[in-house]
Amino acid sequence: MRYIQLYFQFLNLQLKTILQYKSDFIIGVFSVLIGQINMFLLTILVFSQMDVLAGFNLYEMFLMYGFFVMVKGMDHFYNDNIWSFAWNKIKDGRFSEILLRPLNPIFYIVMERVEISGLSEVIIGLVIIILSGNVLHLSLGVLDIFLLCILFICGLVVFFAIKLLFSAPAFWTVCCGEFMTAGIEISNTSKYPLTIYKNAIIQKILLYLLPFPIVAYFPAIFCLKRDTGTIHILNGSISGYEIVLYSVVVASILLFVSIKVWYIGLKRFEPTGT
Amino acid sequence: MVSYLSKYSVFALNALKQKYAYRFKALMWSFSTLFNMLVQYYLWKSVYLELNGNFMGVAQNNYLTYISFGVVFYNITSCMENMNIAEDIKTGSISMNLSKPLNYKMMVFFRHIGSKMGEAIGLVPLMVVAFVLTGCKSMSLLGVLFFGVSTVLAIILFFLFSYLMGILTFWTTNYWGLQFFANSIMGLFSGQLVAISFYIELGKGTEFVTSSLSFLHHPGFMMCFNILGKIAYCLPFQSMYYTPMSILSGIIDKPSDILLHIFLQFFWIICLNALIHILWNKAQKKITIYGG
């Protein structure tokens, strides 16, 4: 409860600083928009030559992309500060300062800064989902929407856990921004259906080790009421509730492991003396 | 000439040593671009699978080479010296450099070449994966030779563009925004997003659209891509990426076309140099403001 109150106080402070740096905010939003235009052009160009790519048509592809942008935007909004932990918090000694605060260090890092331009991605993602869902005549009941929210949270957890996991080496090497960038680049795999990666090893890695398909691919096939087809989890394709179950289990295990690893790093952490 | 080179090569050597000391970082960076390569490769591979190996007149092997080696190529040619120049200008240390009996542009150029050589180790994993993925089936000896020439020109062009952006810091404080803007425009018009030839093919007419979606058959849609293709050839970016990569991958294979594109690269080198010259002279009048 105390944490929730604190979070809103921090958020309030953050919003005030945004009013101060308007041009940075506008550039941030602008950058998001141009990125989307490029992606839109690429997709349109590909689908001008075909109707179906790896079992998905244009609107189904947009639906999936919408989920990707929404989850990524939400993560960008609330959980951007962990980058500064990976790049320079330990190097400049600011991390030692955090440890002295009477708060959980992970929580403190998360709430120290919000990146408001991430919200524009959330809105764009939501608009893409609604528009493409409309064309596809998706019929979702209340229960489906509830389960979709759970999938959304699972997607956020996956992003959070992988960022945390890939920032943990900073405890050993002081700075691991490059390593974390490499980890986060893998999230781009979830823009497209898992079925396009026609390589058994890559598919297995994406299903069990770095489960980015939970971000967009699984929510999309859940909405479309399909099964995973040729992609087998345990020993068969899954659909409907099984997708939600799989996502919750995998996301929770990943979260548990990443927090564990982070705390192992924290135990052996020695300040650099700066 | 020899003394001239040895004077500047010290800067190159210095930058090389600096970057080489952090070679593990360069290796990590290359891994992050590696995933990009894989995503692009598998996306286009599945596109080609749907279309029996031909997408708007470009064969599968050619385009997969274009995509995969393009990532390696970008790592070789990309230049971020504008950030260093911006720092030099903001902190005022540029005045130190200007008071030396050296040409600042040449100094930055050699620094850039040196740091690229220091990071070269990062190219190894990318090259290996690109070779394994594509098998280099679409490369010809002539293409590789012209690619070599074109790459040297592209490195110079990229540097000149970056230098130009750096000089603009004299007039704007928000160089991150500038950098970002240039990057996104570059992605669209350099051929990194898709080969420029696709814009042109699609711009030719709606009969090339084989999709059944009705809005894609609208003439306005075709016009859009037509304009994109035309803008791409009016900007220097396609000379920095599309020209060398499409020569290597065989998307451009007629000798006359190759020579025309290389000529265009020369043209842009002259243009950018002229522009830098003009801006630099203007900036030198302004430089007194920044005491350092």
Automatic annotation (TrEMBL), chain A:
Transmembrane segments: 25-47, 53-71, 119-139, 145-166, 205-223, 243-263
Sorted UniProt keywords: Membrane, Transmembrane, Transmembrane helix
Domain of life of the organism encoding this protein: Bacteria
Presence of keyword Transmembrane: yes
Keyword Chaperone set for record: no
Pfam families reported in the protein's UniProt record: ABC2_membrane_6
InterPro entries referenced in this protein's UniProt entry, alphabetically: ABC-2_transporter-like (IPR010390)
Name of the protein in question: ABC transporter permease
UniProt source species: Anaerosacchariphilus polymeriproducens
Phylogenetic placement of the source organism: Bacteria, Bacillati, Bacillota, Clostridia, Lachnospirales
From TrEMBL, chain B:
Transmembrane segments: 26-43, 63-80, 117-135, 141-168, 180-200, 220-237, 258-280
Pfam families: ABC2_membrane_6
Keywords: Membrane, Transmembrane, Transmembrane helix
Domain of life the protein comes from: Bacteria
PANTHER family reported in the protein's UniProt record: SLR1174 PROTEIN, SLR1174 PROTEIN-RELATED
Name of the molecule in the record: ABC transporter permease
Taxonomic source organism: Anaerosacchariphilus polymeriproducens
